[in-house]
Design goal:
Chains A, B: This is 3-hydroxyacyl-CoA dehydrogenase. The structure is a homodimer of 318-residue chains. By secondary structure, chain A is α/β, with parallel strands linked by helices. Chain A has 2 domains: 174 residues, Rossmann fold; 92 residues, Orthogonal Bundle (N-(1-d-carboxylethyl)-l-norvaline Dehydrogenase, domain 2). Chain A is built from 12 helices and 8 strands. In chain A, strand 1, helix 1 and strand 2 form a beta-alpha-beta unit. Chain A is globular, with a radius of gyration of 21 Å. The interface between A and B is large, with 105 and 105 residues.
């Protein structure tokens, strides 16, 4: 993919700098942009630069970043929302995902943003229309939903509210391409967007199979981790089935569409059962004690770093 | 994982040697076993060894096979079912997936197999009870469903029919572990088993989103290929969500279970619409002309070979 060069004349603002916001800061700084990072919690602010240095070094170790110091020099942690937004033409908001919290920060951003700035929210499932309706610049707000952590997983879902200006959506898409992410643009809002609807559909079936005792968590996980997931690491579900029948996707649908339809009909949507969740929690904590969760997350991120490097080297990256 | 050593005193029989059966032949030969391969079509038989040599060489190029000639020396293409089964204690059947075809070959195998041999069928969704009921040795039959191609994707689903002997199931599991595959054992039959039920749930949602115009095929594919699929290449869906909330899987279910339940309720199961399939076919053939399907499958297999080597080197392989 030929990428446009990012506009380095204006800084990007990061509002909310937990794991998602910090990852975003690294995405933009890595691409050559000045980044102004704000979080209301002093402890969170204090952790941003050490985390960024460690993560940038890990990327440098596999050749995904050339100059760690140059990246770090572009990261500026600030103490106020105003300082973060100063001069920013793009603002990435990553606060806690609850409608009231998103509404409050959106109004605060709205009050100080440049009128032509674009605001992308990291919301993973709540559409922007539910928390930007009262903003004076609501035409400049949209969803820019990443996968955690955004500096290792490039996809970002762009979802316009009914009032999002086409130019704001186009601007966000261009920026995301310029900084090396993979923007996916939805035509309109839907709860969960695409990514989490696909994950949810798979999870709902996985919980049902576990609940009904067909297999344990580890065995169900293995069907993806050592099976389907290998193809999905570089091809989507449609290309996968397109290559999986002699005559392509239409041939595949003719051969197997009936089987998949019957499977869907065999299920009635229901909530994940409480008792089953409890049992799954016990099974997971036996496999991975709670004290080791953080270390396992670091393992996951190392693996994702390796996959990013592998895909880039093999021409499988976007 | 500590693996048992495979029993090299007895050959493995491959019955049906299209892409799936040929991949299986390579799996067993790579692990040190003598393999007797049979397919009723002379043209198919003639293609087995050239394909195996090319595939084994690709594995050798990334360090996944040491000695191509030694692997090739274990592959024996034979002209009759009897010759394939001669002395075999394990038989992998990979004929066309239709109940009548599976029934006929199962009866033929039944007539000449050693009474204590185990027969695994590569069926991707039809349970063994539908095509082994009339076999004298039906207690020795089960499903051993791989992902295509089996020599590059290690998972294999073992699904017992109600009459499958526990010892046959255990023997198949031990063999699969010994030859480097990742066996997943189901407690009982269900249409589509686990892997294709998970794939089907995701596909059904993907088709619905495409049908309703939320995004194009390529954008929906990108949410997996450059998003969820990166994690799923080495972690299953349950471990993924276990690491994706501060308190683990129970915490994740408390935070997001409601959202996923609402998504499921918003869908009524329906067949993939004909007109939408046709449109998807056109979109795919614009992205990848029919004449290039074979080359793209070869690209997929090279990528899978690379991922296998990457996972092995990084300690992410089973």
């Amino acid at each position: 993919m030929t990428r446009p060069a990012p506009d380095t004349a204006h800084p990007v603002a990061i509002v909310g700098a937990g794991l998602v916001g910090s990852g975003w800061a690294l995405v933009f700084a890595r691409a050559g942009l000045r980044v102004q990072v704000y979080d209301p919690v002093a402890e969170v602010r204090a952790g941003i630069l050490p985390w960024a240095r460690e993560s940038a070094s890990a990327l440098a170790a596999v050749g995904l970043i050339e100059d760690v110091e140059a990246v770090m020099a572009r990261l500026h942690v600030v103490d106020t929302l105003e300082a973060a937004l100063d001069g920013a033409t793009y603002i990435q908001e990553s606060v806690f995902e609850r409608v009231d919290v998103k509404s409050e920060i959106s109004r605060a951003i709205d009050a100080v943003m440049a009128p032509n700035a674009i605001v992308g929210s990291s919301s993973s499932g709540i559409p922007a229309s539910r928390f930007t309706q009262d903003c004076a610049h609501r035409g400049r707000f949209l969803i820019a939903h990443p996968v955690n952590p955004p500096h290792l997983v490039p996809v970002v879902e762009l979802v316009p509210a009914p009032w999002t200006e086409a130019e704001a959506l186009a601007g966000a898409r261009e920026l995301m391409q310029a900084v090396g992410q993979v923007p996916v643009t939805l035509s309109r809002e839907i709860d969960g967007f695409i990514l989490n609807r696909l994950q949810g559909a798979l999870l709902n079936e996985a919980w049902a199979l576990y609940d009904e005792g067909y297999a344990g968590l580890a065995d169900i996980d293995a069907t993806i981790a050592h099976g389907l997931g290998l193809r999905w690491a570089f091809m989507g579900p449609f290309e996968t089935i397109d290559l999986n029948a002699p005559g392509g996707i239409v041939d595949y649908a003719a051969r197997l569409g009936g089987m998949y339809h019957a499977m869907a009909q065999s299920r009635t949507p229901r909530a994940w059962p409480e008792e089953t969740i409890r049992r799954a929690g016990e099974e997971r904590r036996e496999a991975l004690p709670e004290a080791e969760l953080a270390a396992r997350r670091a393992w996951r991120d190392r693996a994702l770093t390796g996959i990013a490097a592998f895909k880039k080297a093999g021409g499988l990256a976007p």
